[in-house]
Amino acid sequence: MSGSTFGNIFKISTWGESHGKAMGVVIDGCPAGVYICEDDIQKELDKRKPNNSKYATKRAEEDKVIIMSGIFEGKTTGTPISLIVHNKDYISKDYTNIKDIYRPSHADFTYDRKYGFRDYRGGGRASARETVARVCAGAIAKKILTDLGINILAYTSSVGNIKLKNIDLSYINENPLKMPCKEAVKEATTFLDNLIKEHNSIGGTAHCEIDGLKAGIGEPVFEKLDAMLSMAIMSIGATKGIEFGLGFLASEKKASEYNDIFYNHKNKIDKKTNNSGGILGGISDSSKITINIAFKPTPSISIPQNTINTNLENENIVIKGRHDPFIVPRAIPIIESMVAITLLDYILINTTKKIECIKYAYLNF
Amino acid sequence: MSGSTFGNIFKISTWGESHGKAMGVVIDGCPAGVYICEDDIQKELDKRKPNNSKYATKRAEEDKVIIMSGIFEGKTTGTPISLIVHNKDYISKDYTNIKDIYRPSHADFTYDRKYGFRDYRGGGRASARETVARVCAGAIAKKILTDLGINILAYTSSVGNIKLKNIDLSYINENPLKMPCKEAVKEATTFLDNLIKEHNSIGGTAHCEIDGLKAGIGEPVFEKLDAMLSMAIMSIGATKGIEFGLGFLASEKKASEYNDIFYNHKNKIDKKTNNSGGILGGISDSSKITINIAFKPTPSISIPQNTINTNLENENIVIKGRHDPFIVPRAIPIIESMVAITLLDYILINTTKKIECIKYAYLNF
Amino acid sequence: MSGSTFGNIFKISTWGESHGKAMGVVIDGCPAGVYICEDDIQKELDKRKPNNSKYATKRAEEDKVIIMSGIFEGKTTGTPISLIVHNKDYISKDYTNIKDIYRPSHADFTYDRKYGFRDYRGGGRASARETVARVCAGAIAKKILTDLGINILAYTSSVGNIKLKNIDLSYINENPLKMPCKEAVKEATTFLDNLIKEHNSIGGTAHCEIDGLKAGIGEPVFEKLDAMLSMAIMSIGATKGIEFGLGFLASEKKASEYNDIFYNHKNKIDKKTNNSGGILGGISDSSKITINIAFKPTPSISIPQNTINTNLENENIVIKGRHDPFIVPRAIPIIESMVAITLLDYILINTTKKIECIKYAYLNF
Amino acid sequence: MSGSTFGNIFKISTWGESHGKAMGVVIDGCPAGVYICEDDIQKELDKRKPNNSKYATKRAEEDKVIIMSGIFEGKTTGTPISLIVHNKDYISKDYTNIKDIYRPSHADFTYDRKYGFRDYRGGGRASARETVARVCAGAIAKKILTDLGINILAYTSSVGNIKLKNIDLSYINENPLKMPCKEAVKEATTFLDNLIKEHNSIGGTAHCEIDGLKAGIGEPVFEKLDAMLSMAIMSIGATKGIEFGLGFLASEKKASEYNDIFYNHKNKIDKKTNNSGGILGGISDSSKITINIAFKPTPSISIPQNTINTNLENENIVIKGRHDPFIVPRAIPIIESMVAITLLDYILINTTKKIECIKYAYLNF
């Protein structure tokens, strides 16, 4: 309704502005009995940090999470989990010069129109810093999913038009670009070094895979699993497109080429191909779920740009502050978090769909 | 939660199976005082019908809508509007032979796993016939939007790899493919005629534009307008991808090429380009919202296919029944409906976002 | 949000006006695999009918329920269940004389102010006829609860100031007043016969008990089981008060008198008293849940009353139509229905509260 | 769904345990442009404090609220408002002796059954300390309502069976019992002094009035204003009953006595009586809304009580800690808060109910 709440049963409410006191999230609906400590969350949060990468913002937040409620004797109590990350390294004066200016391809203008005014410090609530809270909540969801045998993996699949030549998953965490391909990383590194010199930024794509999810997750009609994952992922800033399985390429296929043929593989159902990307009729089919996501270039660049101010007068702007020339690597843990939160929520929902399951649960737990 | 309810304030709940008694929708939250009659809805519903197109199913439903509640003296009363379309031309025997078989790329298997069994008659709830209810609700949303000066237009933008050569919007309703390009239609016609002969089907893409929406619609963070439209559209069967503005192409651009430059156009804010597709920070910016959607080929084909049955034994299947070799033209009114419902819902939500507006409304209405 | 939707997982949306075509309900979220037929629902619906009682309206609706969707081969499919009851015996001309008049203690005035106009035929959506849909949905909830060993029983506990002298539950269905006391019924019969002669109506109270509910149902803080039951029951027209356990009498007690003492009863926890009425901290404690509900007299009487019309001019009104001199007996199945729907919903919700339960459910169902 | 979230548009999520680090609330959906500072909230919070009253707990929390987000340049931004109150004066060792014991009439047992274990420190999430967060959110709602001309007033209306003799509203804040009657206060003071000596506690009632609410607020059928206020108020710990207008007394009335007669009062609609308590058909009618609420005695007393432990063995318990012999005065600001949050939410909802209002809002704000 108002945008900062997500999920049905595993419901998260995030808060905080880029240059406010802190970022936070309240999770209402995490099952009781899950072992969670601050380190579990910190580990994921650290993946989101720029970590001195030259391709990322110079803002160096410590991003230390504090558990404020909902955990007792190391376990979730079933009541709200409140997590806070204090903001420390913000420099609000960076932004006073853009107080009255609408930065191109930023949300300045639309927030002003929506609310009548805006918190202009660092983009306020529209800043990518908001995703700190998503990663905090995602860390808990991920831990539960891992325990259920479900793994989520995202990586950078292109930098501008530099694509992967081959895929070596073990290389993802060996490079600041989070790309699973040494050759592509080399090419992209040269490209990005030049880009930084020209004070520009570039778009890119990410790929995400979900492995180990059993069949039956996702709801029919409006809450199809792909629909909900689309909402979840497209809610991340800078995303401009999403596709599942063959995606846009599927639009060029005949059914005789596209249809995934079921067969009996060691007494379990399997598919000869996975063009559909693991979802049929909006419900998981137990094969790998595969997703591609397109990101636009980050709009904040230090190249002079024309724009207008709040009085609609012409202005020429050079955006200062500390920004990311290539945002995709930092979006990777956020994609994983949003996918984890969505999956967990629909797994919880699915628990209530068969009367036999409900009877068993009511009588035994 | 359970999939068949959509929307926050303008909330719709749909029901009905392909071969059940009827399809229906209950709308709870339509504002009072809107003039609506059955013809307003019938007009949109007729666009969804196969209309003897050789590229669409031979099932010839009359699809006559009945208003069951919520309208009095020609106007919406503010209480639930119930709409029903009775099913008439269904031939359930067509499906008894697939009762125990999992059709490739259909939802048979996933529904079975989710619920323990399934209504196999014509796909049951997973059938595209479910969209009748979406179009009924969409017709009402559209009428309200039109009155607010907002227009939604969708059309077929490719058939397999046959793309538009040029765009002539006046041609959309002059051809059964709903393509705005005479040349492309000609090419596609030849292609589809051959396709029908080989009992195959083909994917395609649709384009959708929203014109006249003022700035400020959409909520921050999770309920960004593009996120909600993605959910809405990706919930339509057979969709495999969605993109806004430049979409996937944005991933190859530098910010210096991509950023849309604001300028003062006759004392109103305007943008030199619209690469972002009318949404900034998840909120409408008053320029045209542009969306591309990818559809896979309809999976039901009469070419023999291997598959397995519910006992995991090999089967060879030839799908009978009456199906669509090219689904995109019939998806056009459904896209428009889902977009209309989503926009109206977020316009209603936005009514509650400024205290000045609330005060005025409380004191004057 | 708009009032006609209730529940979280077992979510119902009702529709229909007193003098419209039909009353209906869509249930989205009923678990799959529940055996339900029209007779199961009809049985409950028949309890709501006036059944020629002289204490109830002369409107003689057949109230025949039709299952429109969601049941296949005798079982719920997990997708929306649509139920319809056609209206037949309505006489709309009865109401044209009150088109412009605000009947005392009716909703005519408030609906007009809320929506700008109203469906004046028989009270439109504000009519008690709306509860037909609640009983339809309640019948399904009740069947599931019965199967879990949970029983809900409601009865009339007073007519005006005629109270129960003793309680004989077997007598409830032996008298049209649904009172478990022969002596009170005798007294009330004389009283009501006189009341009918003076064209008046009288208030009364109902009592409701829930037996067999295990401990742990209900959510903390805002969604306490007593809070949700209060909302559910207070949403029934004509209710003016509700209390649990000792209720208002608890306000006169000391803790040393009031506190329910736990003890070990045959190796199970039990309480020496049940002053709290089966709910502690908003969560069921496995003892009987006891509820008292107050109903005002039905406002429609044939005694002349002063009032004003829509132009605020004085009017004298004699309300014609067919009304209930004593409404409580007809509210009994509605109370039971609302309690059943609420309990089932919170039992479904509770299924997702322990991680061990979720793991078991995910891996085994 | 999980209990700690309340409201539709003005949605609040609370968190925190009695002996945890802090109590907090996130409000997502507060309109933009409302002037709010910490003092506005602190003022309400201070009303909830025991303030050295001998009738209230000796726990002396400073209860200092901190605004963490959502306010910029003194005004709400339309994005989430996060409020925190740090816990300071908690003595967790007080509770280790009850770690394995189920205190009579407390939530210890039910939380254990629901979640498998519980935070036993001071009642954890089930503690009345949870209401700190409600008052924080309520303060903001109240400020908005005041600005719309709506006033909410609650007071203690009885202590045990000591009732009000007369009503002098100006006396409410002149006595620690928050009673509007000098004579009753005198009598109650003697009674409570004796009660404290015997280490006991007593129940009581509160009365709440809403003045200045225009007609039309509240939704039909399930979300009637009285139903929603019942849920809101019955969610406060220790409540056992609620009634509107004449309440339970209405059950003894004939319609000819009960019906409120409309008349033209200075060209506005008015009622000769207000037996219905300001709500007709679930919608406000512009007269005063009147509510009575019953509270049980606080269960924590220092008189020895029998009970059992988690092994179902007999125990004799004397509850230490710092508790309230009479809770109603401290519940007063909480009642007002819950009423304010509910009213504001339904005022926001009502903004979307007339098409003329929506058009005006869309085109002008």
Key terms for this structure?
365 residues, 18 strands, 5-stranded antiparallel sheet, Chorismate synthase, AroC fold, 22% strand, alpha+beta, globular, homotetramer
Walkthrough of the structure:
4 copies of one chain form a homotetramer. Chain A is of the alpha+beta class and about 375 residues long. Chain A is built from 9 helices and 18 strands. In chain A, helix 4 (about 130-145) crosses helix 8 (about 330-350) and helix 6 packs antiparallel against helix 8. The first copy, chain A, is globular. Chain A starts with a strand and ends with a helix. The model of chain A has no long low-confidence stretch (mean pLDDT about 95). The interface of B and D includes residues 144, 147, 214 and 354 of B.
Short structural description:
The structure is a homotetramer of 365-residue chains. With 365 residues, chain A is an alpha+beta fold. Chain A has helices at residues 38-48, 93-96, 108-115, 131-147, 182-197, 225-234, 255-258, 328-350, 355-364; strands at residues 5-6, 11-15, 22-28, 65-69, 71-72, 75-76, 81-86, 151-159, 162-163, 204-211, 239-244, 262-265, 268-271, 279-280, 283-284, 289-295, 305-308, 314-317.
